[in-house]
Amino acid sequence: MGSGIAEVAARAGLDVAVREINEGALEAGRKRLTSSFDRALRGGKISESDRDAALARLTFTTELEAFADRDVVVEAIAENERLKAEIFGTLDKVVTRPDAIFASNTSSIPIMKLGVATSRPEQVVGIHFFNPVPVQKLVEIVPSLLTSERTVAAAESFAAEALGKQTIRSTDRAGFVVNALLVPFLLSAIRMLEAGLAAADDIDNGMVLGCAHPMGPLKLCDLIGLDTIKGVADSMYAEFKEPLYAAPPLLLRMVDAGLLGRKSGRGFHTYTR
Ligand SMILES: CC(=O)CC(=O)SCCNC(=O)CCNC(=O)[C@H](O)C(C)(C)COP(=O)(O)OP(=O)(O)OC[C@H]1O[C@@H](n2cnc3c(N)ncnc32)[C@H](O)[C@@H]1OP(=O)(O)O
């Protein structure tokens, strides 16, 4: 989702620094961004000169130090609490702006856990985007118990006024608003497939043609990434101990097998990249 967030911010006229863990990941991210810009160009959503201007506003780096002077930093790494807390601890040391906003795009990890990894928990907030970021209008704004009202207002203004998204506020509970409703539905679809009740295409067609969903639940799992679904389910299960949030064995096996959905070429469906 990081590339989608960077794209939306650059198209909105902001100066954006993108950091990836190594050169390979950086190149892959740059390619994703370029092809998404090209898609917007083909679809007539952006002119060639606006695309070039947006691309010129993006810088790519492997160094976290590039964020020293930033107003807003949005973390969008894998759903792993330990890694996210480590990144927030490092960002706290690296970002020199005293009033910077430290945001996480986490779907399910408590913002409080990330806030207390810094010396500035009042400046840490959830800014949660949805896939595909350039298309979905919603952003969830998630203050922790220690987030200041100034930070929440700045996060809302960043998402709504700067990026043109629509915001809702959520309490800092795993899953927030949308995933608390969506993830049990997606896990139910996986359990239905696992139980042999119906084929993947039939489950997907059922919800698309019967309930007018834009895509079926198994295709949506593939779009989000099966590792991400597992990470979100694990966080929600850890928080509430509700069986409906427990990742089904089929999901666990597919993640172990590297069948992660669109990004790996195969999940519940197969994709050509
Ligand atoms: C896990 C979490 O924490 C959070 C989450 O992300 S939960 C997931 C939330 N997302 C969803 O539920 C997605 C539901 N699905 C959809 O909205 C749609 O199926 C979809 C937008 C993904 C694709 O739509 P579609 O009609 O099947 O395909 P398509 O016609 O190719 O695309 C529709 C539009 O979206 C654009 N689009 C599709 N994928 C895109 C992408 N990856 N990037 C940019 N634009 C994209 C297309 O250009 C097209 O735009 P126009 O209508 O202006 O031409």
Order of helices and strands: HEHHEEHEHEEHEHHHHH
Number of helices: 11
Provide mean pLDDT, rounded.
96
Question: Which bin fits the share of residues in helices?
Answer: 40-55%
Q: How many extended strands?
A: 7
Intertermini distance: 17 Å
What amount of the residues lies in strands?
5-15%
Which ligands are bound?
Answer: acetoacetyl-coenzyme A
What's the main sheet like? 5 strands, mixed
Gyration radius, rounded = 19 Å
Strand order of the largest sheet: 3-4-5-6-7
Structural class: alpha/beta
Pathway: Lipid metabolism; butanoate metabolism
Domain 3-hydroxyacyl-CoA dehydrogenase NAD binding: 1-172
Protein name: 3-hydroxybutyryl-CoA dehydrogenase
Family: Belongs to the 3-hydroxyacyl-CoA dehydrogenase family.
Question: What are the SSEs and their pairings?
Answer:
Layout: H1 2-11, E1 16-19, H2 23-42, H3 48-56, E2 58-61, E3 72-75, H4 81-94, E4 101-104, H5 111-115, E5 124-128, E6 138-143, H6 149-162, E7 166-169, H7 178-194, H8 200-211, H9 217-224, H10 226-240, H11 249-256
Parallel strand pairs: 1-2, 3-4, 4-5, 6-7
Antiparallel strand pairs: 5-6
Helix pairs in contact: 1-2, 7-9, 7-10
Bound molecules: acetoacetyl-coenzyme A (CAA).
